[in-house]
Design brief:
Radius of gyration: 16 Å
Largest sheet: 4 strands, mixed
InterPro entries: Glyas_Bleomycin-R_OHBP_Dase (IPR029068), Glyas_Fos-R_dOase_dom (IPR004360), GlyoxalaseI/FosfomycinResist (IPR050383), VOC_core (IPR037523)
CATH class of the largest domain: Alpha Beta
Strand order of the largest sheet: 1-4-3-2
Structural class: alpha/beta
Strand content: 25-35%
Pfam families: Glyoxalase
CATH architecture of the largest domain: 2-Layer Sandwich
Protein name: VOC family protein
Distance between the termini: 15 Å
Organism: Streptomyces fuscus
Number of domains: 2
Number of helices: 3
Number of strands: 9
Order of helices and strands: EHEHEEEHEEEE
Shape: globular
Length: about 140
C-alpha cells in the first residue's frame, strides 16, 4: 500500500451535550479529552476527543449551528449526520470495546466478517451509536 501524505485530521459531530459525549467516547473508545476543561470554563466553543496522535473528533454543540457561516448553507448541516464513522482497532482493542459496550446499555450490531475498508477486508466489524445517534463502526484487520 502506498504511504499517502494526506491524513484524516478531524471529524466534527453534532452533539447535544459535549461533556457527556466526551465521557462516552472516553469510556467506550478510550479516547482522551481535548480542551474539555476549557469548554466547561466557557473559553472555547467546543471540546474534542483524541482518537490517535493524528486524529481528533470535535464535539460540536447543536447550539452552534447558526454560527456555521463559513460557506453558504453550512448551518443547514446540523441534524444531518454522516452515515457512520469507522474506527480501525487492534484485535485486542476490538474485543475490549465490544465487551465494554455489551456490558453497558449501548446496543451493538451483529459481528460482520470481511467488510471492505481502507485496508481491504476486515476480519470483524460491528456498529454502535453514541448518545446523539451518530453511528460508529468498529473493525479490525488481520
Amino acid at each position: 500500500m502506498s504511504d499517502h501524505t494526506a491524513r484524516l485530521d478531524h471529524v466534527v459531530l453534532w452533539v447535544n451535550d459535549p461533556v457527556a459525549s466526551a465521557e462516552f467516547y472516553e469510556r467506550t473508545l478510550g479516547t482522551e479529552p481535548v480542551r474539555l476543561a476549557e469548554y466547561t470554563e466557557g473559553k472555547v466553543p467546543f471540546p474534542s476527543v483524541r482518537l490517535n496522535e493524528e486524529t481528533i473528533i470535535d464535539l460540536m454543540p447543536w447550539t452552534m449551528a447558526a454560527r456555521m457561516t463559513m460557506l453558504p448553507g453550512a448551518a443547514d448541516s446540523a441534524g444531518h449526520p454522516v452515515n457512520h464513522i469507522c474506527v480501525a482497532l487492534s484485535g485486542a482493542a476490538f474485543d475490549d470495546l465490544l465487551g465494554r459496550l455489551r456490558g453497558s446499555t449501548v446496543p451493538v450490531s451483529e459481528i460482520s466478517h470481511g467488510s471492505f475498508g481502507a485496508r481491504g477486508p476486515a476480519a470483524r466489524s460491528f456498529y454502535f451509536r453514541d448518545p446523539d445517534g451518530n453511528v460508529f463502526e468498529a473493525r479490525h484487520y488481520d
